[in-house]
Amino acid sequence: MMSAMFEQLSLFAPEEAEAICCDSGRRVTATEPESWMKRLVPKGVYVVMVDTHPLVLCLTKLKADDIPEGHHYYHYLIGGLVYAGIFVGREIVG
Confidence band (pLDDT; 50, 70, 90) for 90? Predict the structure, then answer.
């Protein structure tokens, strides 16, 4: 009997994507959040690094023109959709 290995793929799993900051227009790579990030932000779809700080991005219902004044810095466009970010971190004990 031959053993086979299969990988499960999801059409909904995010891959790397280009994210555009709605404040500065800076382009960065967005990746899938790590498991500890997903525990903190369950609706997180992507993560971008802002300097050394992870910003977990969640899909919004906003259009780019609807982002409130002063809030553009934590909003990103990915594939024409607007995502809002939540900064996360974890304490390293030891």
Answer: confident
